[in-house]
Amino acid sequence: MVDAAAAIANALPLLKEYQLCRHCLLRQAGASKRAAADKCYICKGLFGRLDEIAKKAFLATKQYQFDTFLVGATLPTQPYEREDALRARLKIRGRESIKNQLTRELGTRLSKITRKKANYLRPDLTINVVIGKNGEIEATARSRPLALLCRYAKRERGLPQKAGKCPLCLGKGCNLCDGTGLDGLESVEGIVAKHIMKMTGGQAPKFSWMGSEDQSSLVLGKGRPFYAKVSDPKVRKPRKTKFAEAGVEGKVVKVLDDVPDTQARFMVKTRIACKCDRAIVPDDIKKLKKSLAGAQAKFENRSKMAVKKIHSVQAKKTAESELVLTILADGGLPIKQFVGGEQYIEPNVSSLLSARCECTTFDILKVDLLDAGQKLSNR
């Protein structure tokens, strides 16, 4: 079998039959003493426009903040066909393609212009250059999604936590929803989305909430942590990290490499107002404290049995048939079911008091984000 070097040596005399520019000649034969032609059979002058193409690519990056990038290219079929025909005739194999050489050359030029590094695995910015059939050039850029750890507090009652998807784009972001992907902004999610988009210049943020609350609930203290993933952000290192609107206060705590694949563990301190169908007596308060502190609450969640530990309990009678519970428990405990006993949850307040009790409202006092049983971030 003839090796690659021998094949190229055999092909050199025949290459004289083709007019090739310096780049296309080197791509076929490596180093050669032959002078390059002004006109090129393969690229038709494309490599003579490298500086022009690099400038177009650079202009596409101007609105983005990034440290690393990757250049991709889309070429018409004709250059590939001409190069394939030449290589088939001259039996040239295993050489770099015209597309790879073009993107490599553009990457080198862009590194010098932007003083940023090329990254082939996980770039901050991907630049795509499209060469048309008639030599027209288009360049676009898109940023890798930005992952954020955030918190929000809700100081006023009345706002729901979540919003529905935009009926037109179904969450992808469009002109109707101003890029949020949401059906209106009258929610915690809508307010947070609007401000995070403003901070990052991105669109259609997706949220991973650590717990939920009612429309009538407050979220106090340092707020509820959550993850946000923003599409096509223009800013990767936001300078402004806090916002406040309509009783919602938010903060970007940290920029992450990515949103964790697994559900984060967290503990929640909740104040629960309860109303029962009979008068509350002192023994009821004692029984709740004794029975619930350290208990494992078991309930069905998505056809699986879930277990949440109740770490501490405080109870206080506030009216003839009303009391307030303050509990510290694992995140994910369904508060209303925990009080009323619906949908099978044991223990629950109603069964312990042998009364029909209901949660009239509950407020989130504190949420601690955990990792392997340790506090990860409570800033």
Topology:
Layout: H1 4-15, H2 22-29, H3 50-61, E1 68-74, H4 77-90, H5 98-114, E2 117-118, E3 125-131, E4 137-143, E5 146-154, H6 188-200, E6 203-209, E7 219-231, E8 242-245, E9 248-256, E10 265-276, H7 282-292, E11 296-301, E12 304-319, E13 322-330, H8 335-340, E14 345-346, H9 349-353, E15 357-371, E16 374-377
Parallel strand pairs: 1-2, 1-3
Antiparallel strand pairs: 3-4, 5-7, 5-9, 6-7, 8-9, 10-13, 10-15, 11-12, 11-14, 12-13, 15-16
Class of the largest domain, according to the CATH hierarchy?
Alpha Beta
SSE string: HHHEHHEEEEHEEEEEHEEEHEHEE
Strand sequence of the main sheet, in spatial order? 14-11-12-13-10-15-16
CATH topology of the largest domain: Alpha-Beta Plaits
CATH architecture of the largest domain: 2-Layer Sandwich
Summarize the structure.
With 379 residues, the chain is an alpha+beta fold.
